[in-house]
Each structure stands twice: as structure tokens, then as C-alpha cells.
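**User:** Everyone, produce a chain:

**Assistant:**
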Amino acid sequence: MAKKKVKRKSVKKKPPKCNLTIKQDNFCVHYVETGNATEAYKRTYSYKKQKSTTINRNAKKLMDNSKIIARIAELRKPIFDKLEVSAGKTLKRLMQGQEFDMRKLYNKNGTIKKPHELDDDTAKAIVGARYDRDGNLLEYKIIDVKGCSELVGKHLKLFTDVIEIIVPLTEEQEDDSLGKIAEILSRRHKKKK
């Protein structure tokens, strides 16, 4: 199977107000286009003789560079502004999915409502519809309520794992540790007064 050649856009001059090389800036541009660090690396740097693990490691090194992260954020800002993407808007959308009430899909007599009869919040929870051959509405495909709940929970850090590590101490170490803890608590208590 022949590999598809990717047309590469490259920046010819150094970006303004940036301490990146031209290749680093190109990497940022390609990362914003693809959302994939490895692919952005391949589009920017010569990689033919490198193993895939080396490519991945080099892409990760670039992504760990604070100047690269800042440039990517700078390149994404106009996109997010145009799309009006914000954390608040995203969370509001997730909450709509989480609080979806399927009863709002039906009329009082049990028949399914047509799309124009749905209230705004219910309509936003619909991701698709299925019709029969005559064009009659059969069912709605709704947003993944469980997925929305999980994403909201992750954002609020409700699902963080706590790892308890128990290290056996000698009596001398215990006494020393308890003394240090008592000293810290005493200092905090004095500061509050």
C-alpha cells in the first residue's frame, strides 16, 4: 500500500516575539493542524532513519518545552476565540448532557416529539435521529449522559486516586516525626492568633 504524501506548509521566517527556531515554530503550526505531536514532528523534521520510539521521544521533548507550549497556545487562541470555546461554555454543555431528562422527548400522550417541538436544552442533547422510509421520526440518538458525567467529574477532580504509603519507623524516628509535626502545628496556631 503506497503512503500518502502530505503537503507540508512551512514558515520561512522566524515568528515574531518568539525565541523558537523556524523548525520549532513549524512543529507548533503542524501540531495545531493535526493535534498529534508525532505527526507534527514527522512533518517538520527529517525522520526517515529514526525509529518510531525515537520520533515519539523527540516529539515529547518538544511538547515538554514551555516555549513550544506557549507558542501552541498563541496559535490556538484565534481559533478558540472564533469558535467561542471556553472552559465555562464546555462545562455548561457537559452539564446539559448530564442533566438530560428523556421525558422531555415525548408528548403527554406518549408519542415522540418532532425536533421543532423540543425545548432548547433537550434539542442540544440530541446528536442524531432515525426516520422510517416515509420520513416519520422513529427515535432520537441522545448525548452520552454517562460520558458527560465522567468528564465533569474529572474536571472537578472527583475521581482522583489516593495512594496510602505506610513506612515502618523505628521508635526514635516516630518520636522525631511527632516532634516535628507538633512544632509545625504550634507555629500555625501562633500565626492564627
Q: What stands out?
A: The longest helix spans residues 171-192. Helices lie at 22-34, 37-44, 52-63, 66-83, 87-98, 120-124, 145-155, 171-192.
